[in-house]
Amino acid sequence: MNKSLKIVSRITLIIFFTFSLIVNAQSDEDVLKTVYKTSLTNGKSYEWLDYLSNTIGGRLSGSTNAELAVQYTKVELEKLGLDKVWLQPVMVPKWVRGEKEMAYIEANGTINKVNICALGGSVATPNGGVKAQVIEVDTYKDLEALGEEKIKGKIVFINRALQPELINTFQAYGGCSSERYAGAAEAAKYGAVGTIVRSLSSRQDDYPHTGSMSYGDLPVEQRIPSAAISTNDAVKLSEALKKNKNLEFYFEMSCQQFDDVESYNVIGELTGSEFPNEYIVVGGHLDSWDLGDGAHDDGAGVVQSMDVLRLLKESGVTPKRSIRVVLFMNEENGLRGGRKYAEVAKAKNEKHVFALESDAGGFTPRGFSFDCSDVMFSKIEAWRPLFKPYLIHYFEKGGSGADIGPLKSDDIVLAGLRPDSQRYFDHHHAANDTFEHVNKRELELGAATMTALVFLMDKYGTETITNTKEIKD
Amino acid sequence: MNKSLKIVSRITLIIFFTFSLIVNAQSDEDVLKTVYKTSLTNGKSYEWLDYLSNTIGGRLSGSTNAELAVQYTKVELEKLGLDKVWLQPVMVPKWVRGEKEMAYIEANGTINKVNICALGGSVATPNGGVKAQVIEVDTYKDLEALGEEKIKGKIVFINRALQPELINTFQAYGGCSSERYAGAAEAAKYGAVGTIVRSLSSRQDDYPHTGSMSYGDLPVEQRIPSAAISTNDAVKLSEALKKNKNLEFYFEMSCQQFDDVESYNVIGELTGSEFPNEYIVVGGHLDSWDLGDGAHDDGAGVVQSMDVLRLLKESGVTPKRSIRVVLFMNEENGLRGGRKYAEVAKAKNEKHVFALESDAGGFTPRGFSFDCSDVMFSKIEAWRPLFKPYLIHYFEKGGSGADIGPLKSDDIVLAGLRPDSQRYFDHHHAANDTFEHVNKRELELGAATMTALVFLMDKYGTETITNTKEIKD
To answer: Domains in chain A: how many in total?
Structure first.
């Protein structure tokens, strides 16, 4: 097909779907109204989150709590009367924090305790801890210029703060996350004995924020312990260094990496009435870090995703395609669940047409970020007016979610729920990521917003994809 | 001028201003960028709110704390190097809660304590409290049908809940607020001995929420005490009544109304460089209820409004018109400050062209509600793209703010900041309206958003109004 014919076909297609949207507009509006009302008056997400957070708690991969969460969510999905519920086995890393970490600044004979926590994947300190002078840098990229002479035998303190002027706090986080992830491996190359990384928090407070780090291909014997320090204590340490660059920092951690263990993705399915072999996935990750109870990251995404299938049923929607809720295991420190799901889907030649992840907190939903073709995106953007009564306004192209990333192909639309991001990094990976910081209405609005998009994608979305493919042929 | 000529003129006008907007777009974008960055990196609103909330605390009209807040904000405004700062005297009501209230349900010989608080303006219970049987209604409008026979000697329990399916929680609040305001006066007509009103909260918890009520023209001797009960206890009481309609409710309150006292609106001004006799007002209310520290209602609006003038200065903006920050006294139980400001402005024949109020909490700003002409609103809507990078999307016609309401005329644009409303009524008028529930970034985004609108209205807005008036002539 030549180019101009292609364009004409696309325009015809757009007109056709715009027309069909107008014809169906009333009923779509009604469905959305029912979905939102059901979520806000008869949602289950908050009750499930209460259990996951307060009865189970933090759900680090390989922990007993993670397994309790697998069993709990499986049973709860079974109660919903879905067509299928099953566990998908996946081997996951098992890293254990051990005793609560301890750290202090020693300067001029005075000891000043500070709040730290081991980064996920860090080795322990030697028995009795590490005590050394400190060299402060803004980023691990500064280490090369400093060289071994200035670093050897010292603790590297990476004090890079999130940029407060960035409106999207995820962008601010992205500007610092490689410090946490790669800082220790880089510092070790120059003979550092440990790294202390400023917590990736958007707030000044006393909570250290953990998160994954990696030694890359660094030999085991060269690995050095790496911890996060609270933002208040990062300021304290930096100020103390300005007064006395010879001060010493002490920290002790007993974390440990074990062999991989078997765990599971939890999957439930409403089988499609017309195209059962086309799959739509909605999910979040069941594992969390261990310091808080993982209510925002990502208990919220888990319970919202579970409620999507329930809200579709309660709202009288019979999906044409098969809708799966997937509760991924091990997003935080391995992404093994996301990879396993995509691997199995590929092996079974399952046609996935849409995947939506909620992994940005249980705050008021603002919209979605889409990883898809421009044609598909224009189609989706036409649904904006349907979302306006619910104050959902953000429809942008961009990333989607870590767990669904491995499903990426030319034929799939990937999307991420985008809640208000201002408070997210106040809690992310820290002891204050707890249930009481999740607002019931905000959580339920998120579940409804996800359900609305899944409903529309099931009803319209893949038809466009199918037709677009025909145009290509 | 005939109608079609008017329309042509208006279209020309719109084209002209759209063109002038495009010409100026770059610099406006830059100003907004500076304003937001300054607020997020070097804002003062959070520090001021900390003092107002934690050092001063709840600021009920006529209280010592309210006077401390007047003095504190006056001094802080003076530090900003404005052109004028002054106090505008206003007589305000003085109602005092007295001892903490006490209440219980007595059924089948068992006493069950519940959480109540006196509504603002209520009379006390007689010494020793009130104990009586309870009649539950959904709304005070049900009382007429029940009549004196079923009500006399009883406590009327108005158990109307906020509708959870309403996305805008202010709308849900509006659906119940007259129960709180007018319920006691109505119940007294039928011989009730007290009223207990379900708290106007969007959450199930143990906090009673106060707020203003009025006896209207009911003679003093017929006034009955009126309290709010927490949402959890409202459910408890309703369920207890289903089991035993003869149960008794006891409550004791020692609140008291004193004579009016003198207080003040606090006003600061940046005098306009081109049109000093045209005024723009930005404000919030300095008084609050007494149970919490009034951080959201309306400490947030106060400190944001103060920061608008500071952010304009810090961002290098020289306003053409006179910009006033007005910290209104007595919004909660009298609106005396708002009325006084408008009265003085009218007496002095001051031309007010724009007023903006922030009185909906310190949450993430979503946009504004405008009370103005359609022509002016289309003009303002054209600024939407400037706000998009800051995720400000809500521009709708509607109400503005209680304090600026008395300024209403054909020539003024009134606007209210519209923050995310989901959590607001969790805290509104209750003991949990406290500083720790305000997020620094959210507060600062609100201050920046207000500053951006004031900047644009000062630069463009009133010109349109002037031209519109010329068209009328």
So the answer is: 2
Tell me which residue in A167, A423, A439 faces B389 most closely, judged by beta carbons.
A167
Task: Write down the residue that tokens 């739509």 correspond to.
Answer: A280
A380 and A268, same domain (yes or no): yes
E-assigned strands of A253-294?
Answer: 256-270, 275-285
Record: contact B391-A394, CB cut-off 8 A: yes
Assign residue A159 the CATH number of its domain.
3.50.30.30
User: Mean pLDDT over residues B241-249, rounded?
Assistant: 98
Looking at residue A322, its pLDDT comes to 98
Which residues in chain A are closer than 8 Å to B369, comparing Cβ atoms?
A: none
User: Band of the pLDDT at B27, cuts 50, 70, 90?
Assistant: confident
Q: Does the distance separating the beta carbons of B439 and A423 come in below 8 Å?
A: yes
- The complex scores an ipTM of 0.92
Nearest to A289 by CA among A208, A197, A399: A208
Last residue of a domain, one of B233, B254, B275: B254
Other beta carbons within 10 angstroms of residue A259's beta carbon come to 8
Same domain? B77 vs B137: no
Which domain covers residue B23, as residue numbers? 3-93+259-472
Confidence of residue A25 (pLDDT cuts 50, 70, 90): very low
CB pair distance less than 8 Å for B426 and A445: no
Q: Which of A101, A186, A331, A332 is catalytic?
A: A331
Which of B391, B423, B426 is the best residue to mutate to test the A interface, defined by the most A CB atoms within 10 Å of its own CB?
B391
A15: exposed, middle or buried (C-beta count within 10 Å: 0-12, 13-18, 19+)? exposed
Q: Do A267 and A235 reside in the same domain of the chain?
A: no
Length of chain A: 473
CB contact under 8 A, A445 and B422: yes
Q: What is the pLDDT of residues B318-364, one digit of tens each?
A: 999 999 999 999 999 999 999 999 999 999 999 999 999 999 999 99
Nearest-by-CA chain B residue for A387 = B167
Kindly tell me if the per-residue pLDDT of B3 is higher than 60.
no
Q: Do B103 and B227 contact (CB within 8 A), yes or no?
A: yes
What is the C-alpha to C-alpha distance for residues B359 and B302, in angstroms, rounded to an integer?
9
Q: Confirm whether pTM is higher than 0.90.
A: yes
CB B102 within 8 A of CB B163: no
Based on the residue annotation, tell me whether B331 is a catalytic residue of this protein. Answer: yes
